[in-house]
Amino acid sequence: MSLTAASPTAASSTGPIDVEIVIPVYNEEVALAGSVRRLHAYMTERFPWSWMITIADNASTDGTAAVARDLAARLDRVQVVHLDQKGRGRALRAAWSASPAAVVAYMDVDLSTDLDGLLPLVAPLISGHSDVAIGTRLAAGARVVRGPKREVISRLYNLILRTALQSRFSDAQCGFKAVRTDVSRQLLPLIEDNSWFFDTELLVLAEHNGMRIHEVPVDWVDDPDSRVDIVTTARDDLKGVWRLLLAMANGRGSVATRPRPPGRAVQMLSFATVGAITTVTFALLFALMYGPLGALAADVVALTLSALANLAANRRYTFAGSAGSGRYYRRGLVAALLPLAVTLAALGLVMAAGWSSVGHDLMVLTVANLTATVVRFRILRGSTS
Question: What angle do CA 90, 94, 96 make, to 5 degrees?
């Protein structure tokens, strides 16, 4: 890897840098100069923090490298990183790993995303509110111009991620992302992909480790000159999804040093809040299914659904930052079986005594469920220590 720095008189040559924006390029000699000049003008006129633009040339075979060097020589706060191998993920890894900035970001060279989205993208990271920020074309408030084929493919891909990996972010592929540098240095060693799946892997691993992802609905216009091979990229992405599924099933993908979990008092309050909500959910489901299914089946179905919701909510809120391993899920299953056994036993006693009715059954099941809650808390908390 080689570096061509900006002019020594540039404002970026002294003092800390708040944001470094990386533009990964491969054979973009035609579009590069216009896009970088446009971005540079925008940053100079409208961006309130200190910044740097890095052109990450990953093994271009045309005149991209020469154009990039010329831009770095003529524009302050512009530098060039040259890599001898292709791969957008490889380019981002190299630039982000060496960055002195507090926040690292990237955008596609075509500037398909409106630059007015940049400030709301990085502001939550600079303030410390969030760990990762992404532009999204699929959330309310986004305005997107693109063909139906790409729209369908994008929505299907993100649906696969939500179904297979239980992801909650809305758009994995928008070329408009930012990460706090301290967070990127935790996640980069875990990311295996060096190409287009790099973005997805970054987000899945961030979410898996309890990091906060901020989403910014963006205005986005499709680049008709895009040279992305959709079939090859889709195939590689599906392979990446399968690889991540296997990795997380085997307890891999956790950062070496996660944030300390909340204190016991805070965890107990959060656990009680989640428990109250899922208990009400259980009661409603039981009452709805009591008639068509009967007491026993209604108890099993309602408790299973509410237990899954309880497990997911406690991982996100009660044990955030500490519940990223497979051990949490294994113990969570044990914790879910406990109230099921207790409520079935209590229900059996009620039925044997002839007291069974939807009201009596629900009251007894709620008491039995709450009785098991303390033990469930100890089991789940033990999985995160």
Answer: 115
* Annotation says 199 is catalytic: yes
Q: Enter the pTM of the model.
A: 0.64
Which distant-in-sequence residues (6+ apart) come within 8 Å of 145 by Cβ? 220, 221, 222
- Catalytic residue of the set 57, 193, 199, 361: 199
Cα separation of 83 and 70, whole Å?
17
Banded pLDDT at 46 (limits 50, 70, 90): very high
CA distance 205 to 187: 7
Interatomic CA distance for residues 7 and 75, integer angstroms: 8
Across the chain, mean pLDDT equals 82
| Chain centroid offset of residue 275 CA | 25
Query: How far is Cα 176 from Cα 215, in angstroms, rounded to an integer?
Result: 11
Task: Name the E strands within the chain.
Answer: 2-4, 19-25, 51-58, 78-83, 103-107, 132-136, 143-145, 176-180, 213-217, 219-221
Q: Contact 215/284 with Cβ under 8 angstroms?
A: no
